[in-house]
Every structure is written in structure tokens, then in C-alpha cells.
Amino acid sequence: xxxxxxxxxxxxxxxxxxxxxxxxxGPPPTAVISGSDPKYTYxxxxxxxxxxxxxxxxxxxxxxWDWTDDDxxxxxxxxxxxxxxxxxxxxxxxxYDTAGVYTVRLKVTDTLYRTDTETCKxxxxxxxxxxxxxxxxxxxxxxxxDEASTNDELVVQEGICYETIxxxxxxxxxxxxxxxxxxxxxxxxxxxxxxASVVTFEGSEPSSCKLTGFTIRDGxxxxxxxxxxxxxxxxxxxxxxxxxxxxxxNNYDGTLLxxxxxxxxxxxxxxxxxxxxxxxxxxxxxxxNHSTLKPLLPITISAWINIDIDTxxxxxxxSLDNVSLSPWSxxxxxxxxxxxxxxxxx
Length: 346
Description:
Layout (H helix, E strand, L loop, with lengths): L1 H15 E2 L2 E2 L16 E4 L3 E5 L9 E7 L8 E3 L13 E5 L4 E11 L4 E11 L3 E3 L4 E3 L2 H7 L5 E4 L2 E4 L2 E2 L6 E4 L5 H6 E4 L7 E2 L9 E3 L2 E3 L37 E3 L6 E3 L8 E3 L6 E3 L27 E5 L17 E4 L7
């Protein structure tokens, strides 16, 4: 009986101890870095490496991170200490101060002191847009605006940003790296690629909101319809012949007048589907005498104009009369004027 028992014990030892591994203790640890590989971040912006899904037959007792794969672990997390952050969750974050490609190595150790490692690549780029208050980088200006808080400063690197942006009523400072340097301004470009207004303010932004140091170009418009409940008239000037039609539904159509030739329709001109060209002497559009086109203040009038001559003369764009405003006339004229400087810009 004793000999049989001894044989049985020897058989158990032979089965459970093989090549230094204790299979009765469960599988060895497996280090796992969650998420995609490679990972992408921006210079001076923390990136989190998540090793919390690492597993073992026994509990994981230590996580270690080597941020540059130089065989020296930079921080560790154990149940009793944490040199990475304040949370014992198998996750750690790190900012890179130089753009480049890095290899991160995660090492896990279980309670039986068995270990495993895993690596991933991290691509670190210089952010196109940087929020100096939150110390966070972004690939696009609008993304930075969307996540910005009141009074944040957003700095945009030189280059071309192909996008349109909307401040959305936020009080922000959006600037280039050096708004006082003409070369930086010329090379820090927001390009709307002809889609819509390049920059939009909601109108509720305070005077401390700033946009400075950019070249803004290639704005445009999508197909649109005006939908203002108090709109009096809307002349699209997209006809090719005949009268200037009012698209508001109020039927304030205008008649083209002036010595021959009359104002000329330009189907391929203008900002939106055409324009009307005036000779600058006696061409105008007569809207007749409608009482509703003499509204009480305050009112809003907007127009797209393109001046193709150099002049310093004040020029009437919209008026209640077809004569110039005279200070001694005693008449009230509703006019919108554009004062042109000698360079021909308004």
C-alpha cells in the first residue's frame, strides 16, 4: 500500500511541474494594449495607453510602461503605488514634446511574478491647431472651436486649412502664430474651397472675440433659400433678361432703366448664379413707390457689389430716390453708401 501511494505522489509531481511552468496555476499573463495600432497624437498632447484588458490565470499585480522602448520603464502601477497617474486602472498617459514615430512597450506581471510584454506604434505630429489654455492639439480649426471654452486661445500653424468655420457665439481668440508678421499671415490660410462663407460669427460674440493673422480665401455659397419672417424683398439678380424679380413673394419687381444700353445681365458673374452690371453713370433699377419699402428703423439691407473702377467718390448702392442725397433737400432718403478709397477697394 505504501509503495502504491508513493508512486501516485511521484506521478502527480511529474504532471504538474514541466519546464518551470505551473499549469495548475492557470495560464500565464498576456499583455494587451487596447485600441488601434498605430495610434496617432499631437506634440504636447497626452495620449493614453490602455492595458486594462491584459489578463492572467492569476491577478495582474503590476503594469509598467516604456514610452520610447529603450528597455527602461518610465512608470509603473501596482496596488500599493502608482508613478503614472492617480488612477489604478491599468491605463497611463504621456505627452511627447517632439514629433516623430515612437514604440510604446507595456509590461504586465501577475501575482506569481510571471510577465508578458506588448508594443504599439505612436505617431506624433505637430498639431495644425493648438488650444493654449487646454494644452490640446487638433487637426482642424472647427474641431478646436467646438471643444473650446470661453476665453480660450487657439493658435493655428502656417499652412492651408481647407474648411469653413463658425464661432457659434463663443468668445475666443483665434490667431496665427504671429499676426504681426506679414509672411506668417500670408502663409496661414483658411480656404473655404467655394463651399460657403469661410468664417461665420453668430452675432452674439463679444467685442473681445478675435480673429487675427490669417489669409481668408475662396468663400462661396451653397444653394439656399432666404427664410426670414420679416423679409420685405429679395432680389437675387439671377435673371438673364427682363426685370429684376423679387423672390420674397411680395412682388416688388424692379424695372431696368438708364440710357442705352440698359443694365446688363451677367449670368456667369456675381457670387450666386449671376449678377447685374451697371455703367456707373445713369443705370439703375426702379422699384416704384411702395410704402412698405419705406420701413421704420432699425432695418437691415445687404448687397454684394463689385467695383471695377478706381475712385474716391461716394457711390449710392440703395436709395429711396434716384437722386443723390442733398443735405438741403429736406427729404428723408434711405441709402446705403460705399466709400471707395483711391485703390479701388471698398
